[in-house]
Predict the structure.
Amino acid sequence: MDAPLTQAICPERDALIERAEGLVRDTTLASVARWKQDRPGSKAIGFLPPYVPRELIHAAGALPVGILGGGDMEVVRGDAYFQSYICRLPRSTIELGLSGALDVVDGMLFPSICDVVRNLSGMWQILFPKSFVRYFDMPQNFEPEIGGRFFEHEMRSLLSDLGALTGRCVTDDDLRDSIAKFNVNRREVRALYRLRAEQPWQVPSSELYALVRAGNVLDVDDHTAMLRAYRATLDASPRRPKDMARVALRGCFCEQPPLELIKTLERSGCFIVDDDWVLSARWIDGDIATDGDPLWNLVLAFLERAMPCPSLYELRKERGEELVDGVRESKAEGVIFAAPSFCDPALLDQPMAMACAKAASIPATSFLYSENTGQFQVIREQAGTFADSIRLS
Ligand code: SF4
Protein backbone atom coordinates (compact mmCIF):
# COMPACT_ATOMS: atom_id res chain seq x y z
CA MET A 1 0.00 0.00 0.00
CA ASP A 2 1.26 3.51 -0.80
CA ALA A 3 2.55 5.48 2.15
CA PRO A 4 1.58 9.17 2.20
CA LEU A 5 4.39 11.70 2.01
CA THR A 6 5.20 13.32 5.32
CA GLN A 7 2.88 16.32 5.43
CA ALA A 8 4.49 19.71 5.96
CA ILE A 9 2.63 21.68 8.58
CA CYS A 10 4.94 24.63 8.76
CA PRO A 11 4.43 27.61 6.38
CA GLU A 12 8.10 28.69 6.67
CA ARG A 13 9.23 25.20 5.66
CA ASP A 14 6.70 25.07 2.84
CA ALA A 15 8.02 28.38 1.51
CA LEU A 16 11.62 27.18 1.63
CA ILE A 17 10.79 23.96 -0.20
CA GLU A 18 8.74 25.84 -2.75
CA ARG A 19 11.68 28.12 -3.41
CA ALA A 20 14.13 25.20 -3.62
CA GLU A 21 11.91 23.24 -6.00
CA GLY A 22 11.44 26.35 -8.13
CA LEU A 23 15.22 26.72 -8.41
CA VAL A 24 15.62 23.05 -9.32
CA ARG A 25 13.01 23.25 -12.08
CA ASP A 26 14.18 26.55 -13.53
CA THR A 27 16.43 25.60 -16.44
CA THR A 28 16.55 29.27 -17.52
CA LEU A 29 18.80 30.01 -14.51
CA ALA A 30 16.90 33.17 -13.60
CA SER A 31 18.49 33.20 -10.13
CA VAL A 32 21.95 33.30 -11.72
CA ALA A 33 20.86 36.18 -13.94
CA ARG A 34 19.62 38.05 -10.86
CA TRP A 35 22.91 37.41 -9.04
CA LYS A 36 24.80 38.91 -11.96
CA GLN A 37 22.44 41.88 -12.28
CA ASP A 38 23.10 42.73 -8.65
CA ARG A 39 26.85 42.65 -9.33
CA PRO A 40 27.48 44.39 -12.64
CA GLY A 41 30.45 42.93 -14.49
CA SER A 42 30.47 39.71 -12.49
CA LYS A 43 30.77 36.26 -14.06
CA ALA A 44 29.13 32.88 -13.57
CA ILE A 45 30.83 29.60 -14.43
CA GLY A 46 28.88 26.43 -15.13
CA PHE A 47 30.18 23.00 -14.25
CA LEU A 48 28.94 19.47 -14.84
CA PRO A 49 28.86 16.61 -12.32
CA PRO A 50 30.26 15.13 -10.31
CA TYR A 51 32.73 17.62 -8.91
CA VAL A 52 34.87 20.66 -9.46
CA PRO A 53 36.36 22.61 -6.56
CA ARG A 54 33.80 25.41 -6.41
CA GLU A 55 36.22 27.24 -4.15
CA LEU A 56 38.37 28.12 -7.16
CA ILE A 57 35.48 29.73 -9.03
CA HIS A 58 34.30 31.54 -5.93
CA ALA A 59 37.80 32.80 -5.08
CA ALA A 60 38.05 34.22 -8.59
CA GLY A 61 34.92 36.27 -7.83
CA ALA A 62 32.54 34.25 -10.02
CA LEU A 63 29.41 32.27 -9.18
CA PRO A 64 29.81 28.48 -9.49
CA VAL A 65 26.72 27.10 -11.22
CA GLY A 66 26.05 23.36 -11.23
CA ILE A 67 24.54 22.30 -14.55
CA LEU A 68 22.65 19.05 -14.17
CA GLY A 69 21.00 18.71 -17.56
CA GLY A 70 17.68 19.91 -18.86
CA GLY A 71 15.23 17.94 -16.72
CA ASP A 72 12.08 17.23 -18.69
CA MET A 73 12.68 19.88 -21.36
CA GLU A 74 12.09 18.78 -24.92
CA VAL A 75 15.32 17.83 -26.65
CA VAL A 76 15.30 18.36 -30.41
CA ARG A 77 18.62 19.73 -31.60
CA GLY A 78 20.62 18.04 -28.85
CA ASP A 79 19.69 14.63 -30.28
CA ALA A 80 21.55 15.45 -33.46
CA TYR A 81 24.90 15.60 -31.67
CA PHE A 82 24.90 12.21 -29.96
CA GLN A 83 23.91 8.68 -30.82
CA SER A 84 20.65 7.52 -29.30
CA TYR A 85 22.24 4.86 -27.10
CA ILE A 86 23.83 7.21 -24.60
CA CYS A 87 22.36 8.90 -21.55
CA ARG A 88 20.22 11.99 -21.84
CA LEU A 89 22.30 14.50 -19.88
CA PRO A 90 24.72 15.51 -22.66
CA ARG A 91 21.92 15.85 -25.19
CA SER A 92 19.83 18.05 -22.93
CA THR A 93 22.91 20.08 -22.01
CA ILE A 94 23.54 20.75 -25.71
CA GLU A 95 19.87 21.68 -26.05
CA LEU A 96 20.22 24.12 -23.17
CA GLY A 97 23.27 25.65 -24.82
CA LEU A 98 21.74 25.95 -28.28
CA SER A 99 18.48 27.35 -26.92
CA GLY A 100 20.34 30.16 -25.16
CA ALA A 101 19.40 28.99 -21.66
CA LEU A 102 23.06 28.89 -20.70
CA ASP A 103 23.92 32.32 -22.12
CA VAL A 104 23.91 33.61 -18.57
CA VAL A 105 27.01 31.56 -17.72
CA ASP A 106 30.32 32.94 -18.92
CA GLY A 107 32.11 29.63 -19.09
CA MET A 108 31.71 25.90 -18.72
CA LEU A 109 33.83 23.30 -16.94
CA PHE A 110 33.58 19.65 -17.93
CA PRO A 111 35.05 17.35 -15.27
CA SER A 112 36.46 13.98 -16.28
CA ILE A 113 33.52 11.80 -15.33
CA CYS A 114 33.20 9.71 -18.50
CA ASP A 115 33.93 9.65 -22.23
CA VAL A 116 30.55 11.16 -23.02
CA VAL A 117 31.32 14.29 -21.07
CA ARG A 118 34.80 14.40 -22.57
CA ASN A 119 33.18 14.45 -26.02
CA LEU A 120 30.65 17.01 -24.86
CA SER A 121 33.51 19.25 -23.82
CA GLY A 122 34.97 19.05 -27.33
CA MET A 123 31.60 19.75 -28.91
CA TRP A 124 31.12 22.74 -26.67
CA GLN A 125 34.40 24.22 -27.89
CA ILE A 126 33.26 23.81 -31.49
CA LEU A 127 29.71 25.04 -30.92
CA PHE A 128 30.65 28.00 -28.74
CA PRO A 129 34.15 28.98 -29.89
CA LYS A 130 34.13 32.30 -28.06
CA SER A 131 33.11 30.77 -24.77
CA PHE A 132 35.41 29.92 -21.86
CA VAL A 133 35.51 26.10 -21.89
CA ARG A 134 37.81 23.85 -19.91
CA TYR A 135 38.02 20.09 -19.59
CA PHE A 136 38.87 19.54 -15.96
CA ASP A 137 40.90 16.41 -15.44
CA MET A 138 40.78 14.72 -12.05
CA PRO A 139 43.56 12.36 -10.97
CA GLN A 140 43.09 8.61 -10.96
CA ASN A 141 46.34 8.17 -9.06
CA PHE A 142 46.12 9.00 -5.37
CA GLU A 143 49.83 9.31 -4.60
CA PRO A 144 50.42 12.93 -3.49
CA GLU A 145 53.64 13.22 -5.51
CA ILE A 146 52.01 11.81 -8.66
CA GLY A 147 48.26 12.33 -8.84
CA GLY A 148 48.48 15.12 -6.27
CA ARG A 149 51.02 17.15 -8.22
CA PHE A 150 49.04 16.58 -11.40
CA PHE A 151 45.84 17.83 -9.74
CA GLU A 152 47.65 20.79 -8.26
CA HIS A 153 48.81 21.75 -11.74
CA GLU A 154 45.27 21.36 -13.15
CA MET A 155 43.82 23.54 -10.42
CA ARG A 156 46.53 26.19 -10.62
CA SER A 157 46.05 26.45 -14.33
CA LEU A 158 42.25 26.69 -13.95
CA LEU A 159 42.58 29.30 -11.23
CA SER A 160 44.86 31.39 -13.39
CA ASP A 161 42.43 31.17 -16.34
CA LEU A 162 39.47 32.03 -14.11
CA GLY A 163 41.34 35.00 -12.69
CA ALA A 164 42.09 36.22 -16.23
CA LEU A 165 38.38 35.91 -17.08
CA THR A 166 37.14 37.77 -14.02
CA GLY A 167 40.02 40.22 -13.81
CA ARG A 168 40.97 39.17 -10.31
CA CYS A 169 44.44 38.13 -9.23
CA VAL A 170 43.44 35.44 -6.75
CA THR A 171 45.49 35.40 -3.55
CA ASP A 172 45.93 32.57 -1.06
CA ASP A 173 43.74 34.51 1.36
CA ASP A 174 40.95 34.71 -1.25
CA LEU A 175 41.14 30.97 -1.60
CA ARG A 176 41.19 30.43 2.16
CA ASP A 177 38.08 32.58 2.54
CA SER A 178 36.29 30.58 -0.14
CA ILE A 179 37.31 27.26 1.39
CA ALA A 180 36.00 28.45 4.76
CA LYS A 181 32.62 29.39 3.27
CA PHE A 182 32.23 26.05 1.52
CA ASN A 183 33.32 24.24 4.68
CA VAL A 184 30.41 25.88 6.49
CA ASN A 185 28.07 24.97 3.66
CA ARG A 186 29.19 21.32 3.59
CA ARG A 187 28.74 21.14 7.36
CA GLU A 188 25.13 22.25 6.99
CA VAL A 189 24.51 19.72 4.21
CA ARG A 190 26.04 16.93 6.28
CA ALA A 191 24.07 17.92 9.35
CA LEU A 192 20.87 17.44 7.38
CA TYR A 193 22.14 14.13 6.04
CA ARG A 194 22.90 12.98 9.57
CA LEU A 195 19.49 14.05 10.80
CA ARG A 196 17.81 12.28 7.89
CA ALA A 197 19.67 9.04 8.70
CA GLU A 198 18.64 9.32 12.35
CA GLN A 199 15.07 10.55 11.88
CA PRO A 200 14.11 10.21 8.22
CA TRP A 201 10.54 11.34 8.86
CA GLN A 202 11.95 14.75 9.83
CA VAL A 203 13.87 15.29 6.61
CA PRO A 204 12.01 13.77 3.67
CA SER A 205 14.47 13.00 0.90
CA SER A 206 12.40 14.86 -1.66
CA GLU A 207 12.94 18.00 0.44
CA LEU A 208 16.62 17.32 1.07
CA TYR A 209 17.19 16.65 -2.61
CA ALA A 210 15.55 19.93 -3.65
CA LEU A 211 17.38 21.89 -0.97
CA VAL A 212 20.79 20.51 -1.86
CA ARG A 213 20.22 20.86 -5.60
CA ALA A 214 19.15 24.48 -5.12
CA GLY A 215 22.70 25.19 -4.02
CA ASN A 216 23.79 24.68 -7.62
CA VAL A 217 22.41 28.05 -8.60
CA LEU A 218 22.82 30.07 -5.41
CA ASP A 219 25.66 31.98 -3.85
CA VAL A 220 27.19 29.79 -1.16
CA ASP A 221 26.19 32.12 1.69
CA ASP A 222 22.62 32.31 0.43
CA HIS A 223 22.47 28.53 0.21
CA THR A 224 23.92 28.07 3.69
CA ALA A 225 21.27 30.45 5.04
CA MET A 226 18.59 28.44 3.26
CA LEU A 227 19.78 25.17 4.81
CA ARG A 228 19.96 26.74 8.27
CA ALA A 229 16.48 28.20 7.94
CA TYR A 230 15.17 24.76 6.97
CA ARG A 231 16.87 23.12 9.94
CA ALA A 232 15.39 25.77 12.24
CA THR A 233 11.90 24.85 11.04
CA LEU A 234 12.56 21.23 12.03
CA ASP A 235 13.41 22.31 15.56
CA ALA A 236 10.44 24.65 15.78
CA SER A 237 7.95 22.34 14.12
CA PRO A 238 9.05 18.70 14.31
CA ARG A 239 7.23 15.98 12.45
CA ARG A 240 5.73 12.83 13.89
CA PRO A 241 7.81 9.64 13.62
CA LYS A 242 6.82 7.15 10.94
CA ASP A 243 7.92 3.66 10.13
CA MET A 244 8.91 2.86 6.56
CA ALA A 245 11.62 0.74 4.93
CA ARG A 246 15.04 2.38 5.09
CA VAL A 247 16.87 2.22 1.77
CA ALA A 248 20.12 3.51 0.28
CA LEU A 249 19.93 4.84 -3.28
CA ARG A 250 22.90 4.41 -5.62
CA GLY A 251 23.67 5.35 -9.21
CA CYS A 252 22.43 8.95 -9.31
CA PHE A 253 25.82 10.68 -9.19
CA CYS A 254 25.57 12.32 -12.61
CA GLU A 255 22.29 12.57 -14.53
CA GLN A 256 19.88 13.39 -11.76
CA PRO A 257 16.58 11.65 -11.09
CA PRO A 258 13.44 13.76 -11.49
CA LEU A 259 12.13 15.18 -8.23
CA GLU A 260 8.91 13.24 -8.79
CA LEU A 261 10.87 10.00 -8.80
CA ILE A 262 12.14 10.69 -5.30
CA LYS A 263 8.59 11.52 -4.19
CA THR A 264 7.41 8.29 -5.79
CA LEU A 265 9.92 6.24 -3.81
CA GLU A 266 8.76 7.91 -0.62
CA ARG A 267 5.12 7.35 -1.47
CA SER A 268 5.86 3.69 -2.11
CA GLY A 269 7.01 3.29 1.51
CA CYS A 270 10.76 3.95 1.31
CA PHE A 271 12.75 6.25 3.53
CA ILE A 272 15.87 7.07 1.51
CA VAL A 273 18.52 7.34 4.22
CA ASP A 274 21.61 7.39 2.01
CA ASP A 275 22.17 8.49 -1.58
CA ASP A 276 24.78 9.62 -4.09
CA TRP A 277 22.97 12.46 -5.86
CA VAL A 278 24.31 16.06 -6.12
CA LEU A 279 27.72 14.84 -5.02
CA SER A 280 29.38 18.19 -5.65
CA ALA A 281 27.70 19.51 -2.50
CA ARG A 282 29.47 17.02 -0.23
CA TRP A 283 32.31 15.69 -2.31
CA ILE A 284 34.81 16.20 0.48
CA ASP A 285 34.18 14.44 3.75
CA GLY A 286 34.87 16.90 6.58
CA ASP A 287 36.42 20.35 6.49
CA ILE A 288 39.25 21.39 4.20
CA ALA A 289 42.14 23.01 6.06
CA THR A 290 42.40 26.78 5.69
CA ASP A 291 45.94 27.22 6.97
CA GLY A 292 49.10 26.64 4.96
CA ASP A 293 48.88 26.29 1.18
CA PRO A 294 45.15 26.40 0.34
CA LEU A 295 45.56 24.89 -3.11
CA TRP A 296 47.49 21.94 -1.72
CA ASN A 297 44.82 21.57 0.97
CA LEU A 298 42.24 21.15 -1.80
CA VAL A 299 44.49 18.56 -3.43
CA LEU A 300 44.91 16.55 -0.23
CA ALA A 301 41.21 16.73 0.55
CA PHE A 302 40.48 15.24 -2.85
CA LEU A 303 43.10 12.52 -2.55
CA GLU A 304 42.23 11.50 0.97
CA ARG A 305 38.57 12.30 1.50
CA ALA A 306 36.74 12.40 -1.84
CA MET A 307 33.33 10.73 -1.93
CA PRO A 308 33.44 7.33 -3.61
CA CYS A 309 32.08 7.48 -7.13
CA PRO A 310 32.11 4.90 -9.96
CA SER A 311 34.02 7.40 -12.10
CA LEU A 312 36.94 7.45 -9.68
CA TYR A 313 39.59 4.80 -9.47
CA GLU A 314 39.27 3.56 -5.90
CA LEU A 315 42.37 2.46 -4.05
CA ARG A 316 41.16 2.82 -0.52
CA LYS A 317 38.52 0.12 -0.62
CA GLU A 318 37.38 -2.74 -2.81
CA ARG A 319 34.60 -1.85 -5.21
CA GLY A 320 31.28 -2.20 -3.41
CA GLU A 321 32.84 -2.05 0.04
CA GLU A 322 31.89 1.60 0.41
CA LEU A 323 28.31 0.67 -0.38
CA VAL A 324 28.20 -1.88 2.41
CA ASP A 325 29.84 0.63 4.76
CA GLY A 326 27.35 3.32 3.75
CA VAL A 327 24.44 0.96 4.29
CA ARG A 328 25.70 -0.01 7.75
CA GLU A 329 26.40 3.61 8.71
CA SER A 330 22.99 4.88 7.61
CA LYS A 331 21.24 1.77 8.98
CA ALA A 332 19.65 1.18 5.60
CA GLU A 333 17.80 -2.11 5.26
CA GLY A 334 18.16 -2.41 1.51
CA VAL A 335 19.67 -0.82 -1.58
CA ILE A 336 17.98 0.54 -4.67
CA PHE A 337 20.28 0.81 -7.66
CA ALA A 338 18.74 3.56 -9.75
CA ALA A 339 21.00 4.28 -12.69
CA PRO A 340 20.43 6.60 -15.63
CA SER A 341 19.75 4.66 -18.83
CA PHE A 342 22.98 4.07 -20.79
CA CYS A 343 25.21 5.40 -18.01
CA ASP A 344 28.37 3.31 -18.44
CA PRO A 345 30.07 4.23 -15.13
CA ALA A 346 26.96 3.43 -13.09
CA LEU A 347 26.02 0.28 -14.97
CA LEU A 348 29.54 -1.15 -15.09
CA ASP A 349 29.88 -0.60 -11.36
CA GLN A 350 26.49 -2.05 -10.50
CA PRO A 351 27.23 -5.81 -10.80
CA MET A 352 30.19 -5.50 -8.42
CA ALA A 353 28.18 -3.42 -5.97
CA MET A 354 25.24 -5.82 -6.18
CA ALA A 355 27.53 -8.77 -5.55
CA CYS A 356 28.89 -7.04 -2.45
CA ALA A 357 25.37 -6.31 -1.25
CA LYS A 358 24.39 -9.94 -1.80
CA ALA A 359 27.48 -11.19 0.03
CA ALA A 360 26.56 -8.94 2.95
CA SER A 361 22.94 -10.18 2.86
CA ILE A 362 21.62 -6.73 1.99
CA PRO A 363 18.43 -6.87 -0.11
CA ALA A 364 18.73 -4.98 -3.38
CA THR A 365 16.67 -4.07 -6.40
CA SER A 366 17.37 -1.99 -9.48
CA PHE A 367 15.72 0.09 -12.17
CA LEU A 368 16.71 2.62 -14.81
CA TYR A 369 15.55 6.19 -15.15
CA SER A 370 16.35 9.29 -17.13
CA GLU A 371 16.07 12.91 -16.10
CA ASN A 372 12.81 13.21 -18.05
CA THR A 373 11.16 10.02 -16.82
CA GLY A 374 7.51 10.91 -16.43
CA GLN A 375 5.76 7.61 -15.79
CA PHE A 376 6.30 6.28 -12.30
CA GLN A 377 3.68 3.58 -11.87
CA VAL A 378 6.03 0.66 -12.56
CA ILE A 379 8.73 2.11 -10.32
CA ARG A 380 6.16 2.73 -7.59
CA GLU A 381 4.99 -0.86 -7.71
CA GLN A 382 8.54 -2.22 -7.75
CA ALA A 383 9.71 0.01 -4.89
CA GLY A 384 6.53 -0.68 -2.93
CA THR A 385 7.02 -4.42 -3.23
CA PHE A 386 10.67 -4.02 -2.24
CA ALA A 387 9.70 -1.93 0.80
CA ASP A 388 7.05 -4.47 1.81
CA SER A 389 9.52 -7.35 1.48
CA ILE A 390 11.94 -5.51 3.77
CA ARG A 391 9.30 -4.70 6.35
CA LEU A 392 7.99 -8.26 6.36
CA SER A 393 11.37 -9.99 6.56
S1 SF4 B 1 24.99 9.94 -16.86
FE1 SF4 B 1 26.73 8.53 -16.88
S2 SF4 B 1 27.27 8.22 -19.03
FE2 SF4 B 1 25.96 10.03 -18.89
S3 SF4 B 1 27.35 11.76 -18.79
FE3 SF4 B 1 26.89 11.13 -16.70
S4 SF4 B 1 28.46 9.67 -16.07
FE4 SF4 B 1 28.54 9.89 -18.32
Notes: The pocket of iron/sulfur cluster is lined by residues 87, 89-90, 113-114, 116-117, 254-255, 340, 343-346 (CB under 6 Å). DSSP finds 14 helices and eight strands in the chain. The radius of gyration is 20 Å.
